[in-house]
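Researcher: For the annotation table, I need structure tokens for GPI ethanolamine phosphate transferase 3. Please keep the output clean. Sequence:
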Amino acid sequence: MKEKWNYILYLIWFAYLILSAVLMFGHGFLLSRKTLSDVTKCVPLTEIGCDGWEKGNSTEVCKEDVKIRRLLANPGSEIACVPAEFRVALVLVDALRYDFTEYDGGIEKPLPYQNRLPVMKEMLDRWPERTRLFRFMADPPTTTLQRIKALVTGSLPTFVDASSNFAAMELQEDNLIDQVTKGGGKLVLLGDDTWSRLMPGRWLRSHAMYSFHTWDLDTVDTEVDSKVYDELKKDDWNLLIAHYLGVDHAGHRYGPNHPEMTRKLDETNTRLKRFINELPPDVLLFVIGDHGMTETGDHGGESKAERTAAMFAYRGNGLGGNSSPSNIGAEVQQTDLAPTLSAALGRPPPAPSLGSLLLPVLPTMSVPYTLLHITNNLKQIRQYLVRYGEESQQISLDRLAQLINATREQLDKASSIETDEELANYVADVRALIENVRNVFREVWVEFDSLSMLRALLLLILAIFFNWLITEGLPMDRVPLIFASSFVPTGFVAMAVCIGVCYSAYFFEILDDLEHAIILSTGLISGAITCTLVIMHWDGVTQRWYEGRSQFYERFARAAIVASAVVLVSNSYIIEEGAGLSFLSLSVLALIAWNVGTIKALAMWACCGVVLALTRSYRGCREEQGDCWTAGEGAPSGQASRAALVLALGSVAAVVAVARRHVGWRGYGVVLSGLFACAHWAVGWGTLGSPSRSRLLARGSWLVIVTMFALLWRRDGQGATLPLTVCGLLFYVANTLVLGAAFAPSAALALLTGFLVLTIVSMEKNSTSTKFSLSTRCSSSVACAWALLASYFFYGTGHHATLGHVRWAPAFHAGDPNYLAIGPPITAALVSIDLFGMPLMFGAAVPLLALWGKNGASNVGPRTQLAAVFSLCLKFALCFAIRVFVCAMSATIHCRHLMIWGVFTPKLLFETGACAAALVGCVFGAALATWHIPTAHRSS
């Protein structure tokens, strides 16, 4: 019967409604800041006459100090730039955390990253007038792309840009690089190709190399070293950028507490010594880090370790400002780099810059020249405030006027500054003002589209409410009749009509936002259709509610899934969510086992408790949780310990050995893929391992897995239980491959938990009737318990809902996919499986809850089996939809909360990913079950 595929189409329909509504919410919530196309322009000082205006045809000549004084006396004059007097060598050591640069001779047993850059200490002691060292504070997110954008524009990054970290597009805003090229300057680039992707065609010479080989510690650094010293000897460039990646890659692969980090920092120390020795005395050398790293070597979030980088400055002919030892380690903002380098290179600050000049890292200048650079900075800030107020209503007019007036007051004061003491006070006042401006923009930088957010929340609540009525209200025997009707085709036809109308309206320019119009119209029409369905069958809904009062364990399970979602409104519960989900899962399972009422069921529940307790060893630590122990100690380094390797091999071997005996001919594929996975870990383990052969074995395992997924669709007439079981086992092997040997045992524990729960559920009976027993298996309590376990094992496999905890190593366990034409999709798929493989596996196994066991569904007809599978899949999907809705509501409530970008927004993103994975798994498992459940023949 063709109508049986209506079940699958409806699940796809539901998945579309949920994910499209979340997409609309994301468009409203994750908007980036308002970007302006303005470019800062300046008039060369040589073209300005003695009266302070452009001299035109005048032949009058006067000293530059006189010109500057007259410009300062006219605060409304244009920005005047001096000819470039200095050259700059910018050495960016990726992930150079500030404490990597500190030196303490009193430490007897330094950590691998301590006391590894003594050259900085030596230069600070020997040449304090030539050398500076600061804490270089980054703004979150601390991903490389956002940091480079902030460094060259002087602006603040946005959270949403983190998603494009590995697909950089050309930078459209005014920036330091464009300012130098427009002024006739020449630039040389060595190292990370993110610069060339962001700013293509700007370079006199470019030797950019691919930056995402995170396990390659030396190639980029060696290539830069082979060219940078020759470049230092040339004088045809104004700005030299050398971006080293070894320290960052050592952190990603091994973490900071590893001998490889020691080696890379020692190389950096040797490199800096040679730099200083070969650097021309008039060239400014800046050695900076774009961000720091956590104790596991990760970055991307907003912890202090990730935000605190280092800035080291040196010039053979000396620097200006205060060289007091008390200033070593003072905090400066990364936004200050762009206006500072612009001043050194004779250019005005970029238009979006919110930074202030760092005079201590610039050469000594006279008071008039210093004031010229400061007033240029203030004029640029004033222009930006005026233009931003015209283009965006984010900042109140009163506050904006206050800031603009404050900049004018400082500009008016400039002409009265004469002495060095007055200049120092003036510089402090200007820095305080610019810091105030920067803080104002930090508070209101993201402009939320409240209309899109409210529309999305409306669509989500409609989809959840009406589908809850369908699953909880419609009697089981009516479901096959509904899906044998034209209900689902009518819905898809209505959606197609909506899409056609929206496209027509967009073509005739009636609509401005096509995507939002399609999502809103299809969502509303879907809600109307499901509402109509409920109204048509309202008699059955009311009769079922009247006759069958749900039992306590049913109500408790629903309350548990709602509670697991509602507590996400609190940042404290998000941080400790793993423990909460474990408790709720065991509580729901305890009541289900108690309802079964047998010693075996209670024993199975006790085993579940033991297994979940064992998974506690693999739950990771957030920074907010303080010190806690994390299993898989070698995981941050990409290398499992010997004990972890033995556990991984033993767990996979046990699973495939048991699977082979119970799943027929399909078990050969599970065994083969599992053996390849074990060989992949064993061959690549240790310093004597063979990485190339290990990667080849991983590819072999993936080839077997993909082949077996294709063979799952081969019918053998034995029903859907065996193919679904093999599907779950294949997902398990796939999870072990991406999790790696360090966390592979946690996947085995998840599989064992699922088996125990299936056994408990298969014991549930409502009466002597098999049909009623099947109805009990498809109750809300079963779906809620399964959903809670699927959510829990995101944490049980060592993950956390923070950007800094995303593990990128799984993308490279079988080789570097970026050499392939379809590399980015493969990378995204592997990282997604690592993150959301557990919801995917549990989602695909949902039909087993209804069909598992000797008396599962063998004595009922195909229509009843299909209705049971559909009902349970939809309930499972609803559990995740509820969690996503509450996360979206929480983000809306807390949109101005201090932790919005550190806790609530990452949780929304990760919960959406888990929901998408669960929906995909549900659809796949339901389709597989539908394919193998025999077709019902209508009687004459």
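Researcher: And a one-line annotation?
Model: DSSP finds 35 helices and ten strands in the chain.
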